[in-house]
TrEMBL record:
Residues 86-154 form the Transcription elongation factor GreA/GreB C-terminal domain. It comes from Sphingomonas insulae. Keywords: Coiled coil, Elongation factor, Protein biosynthesis. This is Transcription elongation factor GreA. The lineage of its organism: Bacteria, Pseudomonadati, Pseudomonadota, Alphaproteobacteria, Sphingomonadales. Residues 34-65 form a coiled coil. It holds the Pfam family GreA_GreB. InterPro entries: GreA/GreB_C_sf, Tscrpt_elong_fac_GreA/B_C. The gene is greA_1. It comes from the Bacteria. GO terms for molecular function: translation elongation factor activity.
Length: 162
């Protein structure tokens, strides 16, 4: 039989497991973001202990991969305060009117982002459009010159305990 049709084991043909991608750019975090990283690391360490006790190699590898990601994020975290001048920026919650609808958008780090909860990463297009704005500003977005009206800006750490 030709070696082309022979297989030693199924493990030779498993898809490789890659590391979780690290977002590009600085790892800016709010106080809540730093606490989130610590919480995730603690939970993964506990899950790793349980997985090692049960000897599930695949689960252990996945937990170790996630743990490496979060430990890297902790190491590279740059705690960043909201702008002192009261303008919108990283670490602020911006009250806006978009399309006649009021929204409170928090500008946070990549790991804290949850667009469904209006928590946008500082690199997201809407967050970038808001950075530097002050209450009363009318901003362009999505091809419209008057798409966003900034109503208020407040620092997140002043309203969200860590």
């Amino acid at each position: 039989m030709s070696v082309a049709f022979r297989r030693e084991s199924d493990e030779e043909h498993l898809e490789p497991k890659f590391e979780l991608p690290i977002p590009t750019g600085p790892n800016l975090v709010t106080r809540a973001g730093k606490a989130l990283i610590e919480t995730r690391i603690a939970a993964l360490k506990q899950a790793l202990e349980q997985a090692l006790a049960q000897a599930g190699a695949e689960a252990v590898d996945a937990i170790r991969r996630d743990l490496r990601y979060w430990q890297t994020r902790r190491t590279t975290a740059v705690p960043t305060a909201a702008p002192a001048d009261g303008s919108a920026g990283f670490g602020t919650r911006v009250q806006v009117t978009i399309g006649g609808r009021e929204r409170a958008i928090a500008i946070v780090g990549d790991d804290e982002a949850d667009p469904r909860a209006d928590r946008l990463a500082f690199g997201a297009p809407l967050a970038r459009a808001l950075i530097g704005a002050e209450p009363g500003d009318i901003l362009p977005f999505g091809g419209r010159d008057d798409a966003i009206e900034v109503v208020a800006v407040e620092p997140i750490d002043a309203v969200e305990p860590s």
